[in-house]
Amino acid sequence: MEKTEGPAAARGRNRPPSQADVAALAGVSSQTVSRVANNRSNVEPETRDRVLSAMRILGYQRNSAARALTLGRFQVLGVVTFDVTAQGNARTLAAISRAAQRAGYSLNVVCVEDQTEEAVQQAVRQLTEQAVDGLVVIEAQILDRPGFNVSSGVPVVVADGDPERRFPSVDTDQAAGAAAATRHLLDLGHRTVWHLGGPQDSYAARRRAAAWHAALKAAGAPVPPLRFGDWTAASGYGIGRELAARPDVTAVFAANDHLALGLVRALHEAGRRVPEDVSVVGFDDLPESAYYLPPLTTVRQDFEEVGRECVAQLLRQIESPGESPTASVAVTPELVLRASTAPAPTAR
Amino acid sequence: MEKTEGPAAARGRNRPPSQADVAALAGVSSQTVSRVANNRSNVEPETRDRVLSAMRILGYQRNSAARALTLGRFQVLGVVTFDVTAQGNARTLAAISRAAQRAGYSLNVVCVEDQTEEAVQQAVRQLTEQAVDGLVVIEAQILDRPGFNVSSGVPVVVADGDPERRFPSVDTDQAAGAAAATRHLLDLGHRTVWHLGGPQDSYAARRRAAAWHAALKAAGAPVPPLRFGDWTAASGYGIGRELAARPDVTAVFAANDHLALGLVRALHEAGRRVPEDVSVVGFDDLPESAYYLPPLTTVRQDFEEVGRECVAQLLRQIESPGESPTASVAVTPELVLRASTAPAPTAR
DNA sequence: CAGCTTGGACCCCCTCGCAGC
DNA sequence: CGCTGCGAGGGGGTCCAAGCT
Known about the structure:
The first copy, chain A, has helices at residues 7-11, 19-26, 30-37, 45-58, 64-71, 87-102, 117-129, 141-144, 174-187, 203-219, 233-244, 257-269, 303-319; strands at residues 76-82, 106-112, 134-138, 156-159, 169-172, 194-197, 227-228, 251-254, 279-281, 298-300, 328-331, 334-336. By secondary structure, chain A is of the alpha/beta class. The first copy, chain A, has three domains: 7-62, Orthogonal Bundle (434 Repressor (Amino-terminal Domain)); 74-172 and 303-332, 3-Layer(aba) Sandwich (Rossmann fold), CATH 3.40.50; 174-301, Response regulator (Rossmann fold, 3-Layer(aba) Sandwich), CATH 3.40.50. A six-stranded parallel sheet of chain A has the order 2-1-3-4-5-11, with helices on both faces. In chain A, strands 7-6-8-9 form a four-stranded parallel sheet, sandwiched between helices. In chain A, strands 10-12 form a two-stranded antiparallel ribbon. In chain A, helix 8 (141-144) links the parallel strand 3 and strand 4 (156-159). Strand 2 of chain A pairs antiparallel with strand 2 (106-112) of chain B.
């Protein structure tokens, strides 16, 4: 009796080949095919070869839906993020993607558009329903929504800080970075340092501002009024115009590089030179920040490390669900000195 | 007889509730639960309410793996991309995400790190195996790998051009943008326009270069040698230093805004003013390009539209598999005039 | 009979076709 | 005809028993 045409193979033609089809072609049972597909050891080499070549002939790919159904795991990590257009988020995402891929997971990404609680909630619902083994949430604002919660007991890791510490988180050490930036300017002899903050609803922005404030206090420097922008060059420019008009501003720490860029343009238009008249420090260290005019002194974030740690933490939670997850991991940023800072103008 | 504790509910405790659990609690069969979950009309309102409240009590979420298994569809779109860190890719991705979400699909994203054929192939394999209903490939280079093919008959759309037209594609009209940039500079009285190209293996970069070349020819302008960079400000700076050394360079069209940024810095360092001595045009229109010094004249790409069209095309293919897919869609970019271009220096 | 490979039964959860009231 | 339930897959994994050496 010919075995090459089992019932499964005969059933339908343009349907992806199943284990049963491979089994029929190889003249074995589908369980043996399963063993081969999963690289089990207890298969006769000769049998394995027959199965493997049958797989190749048929172009067999295992059906992840069926697999997920029986295993109860999906080999998929969910990522919720605002605005991948922001460099920081994009780089964190890229790093997460790399780390996930190395671990054999793929990524289900949802970019939340509106910063409304409902939008976030829907994204999470979609993701957990779409079957993920764990969730990375990039950007803490998302968690500020009081309604945010993950119903289904899916492990969660937060990148970029979780103000209420409800979840394990991985984050750049914002405080260390902001303090380094502020002290650097103070050390250059500036009487004080102004701060151009990020959006007020960003936890990262708030922590940078707080650390700037603390550094000023610690140094006994006066604390100038604080203004919040929204991470864009446009808002850096808008607020920058006000700062440029004040002659007592000689040093500004901007909460990110784009804000710094807008600020520099505003200063330039007002006839105030950077760094001769005003020193500027950014935050992020975008690849292009070294090519701004002048090249920007800034705080470099190690997004790669943040992404890698997120995935590592998540996998740990997934693989040993019992254990209480590690608390927070802080990744230390690094001050990169370039040409946008200089000693305070002597005068006065 | 109490129905609230059916066999299914008793079987295991910390397993997500299934239809059977809901059915047991509501005192109906699981098929009825299915009907309610899928919003079918043929359910008695009173029954539906009972089921709905049972769902709420149990926190029921439907199991997408099982659903996908029976339906043969996953409600997931795969995205393959190089480097989300590149603004263009990130913005396309964001747009795709939005469009997909609106259509009720989620996104399985793979960022390919190395530009090797193997890496790409593996990404595609992972994605098709991970069960996607369709595939968007961002950045044409991926397709240049001769080995690239999608085995499993999954619909594919290419964003950013498909040189060999093997797949339907959606793309910015690179030629129109590059021609507009070149003509703009020519119209300002420059004898000719130099081009600072993107990476040679990028189809978009090649098309921009070709259109620049054609525009010069059409205008009877001499064609200066062409140099290829790699999209980064760093390479713009490197090549920019060479260009800055040549006094006959008075107008440069850079293949993207980051290249233009590096170029401007190089010109600045060489003491050549932009736009008084040299005019520069970029490509992309990043949000921060308006805040460069000087604000950059550039070609604005409508990434939003590209993403939206990709998803639309893909869904069309998915929903009516028979039809031959539409060929290519071109999205027209727009020249944005700012302060980095000026009439050719009179002299000579 | 120990130790190996192999196959049969059953379950995962949901949806569809059909039958029953 | 309206609403509901039964049974059968859909593809693959685990448990356990059967067959072989």
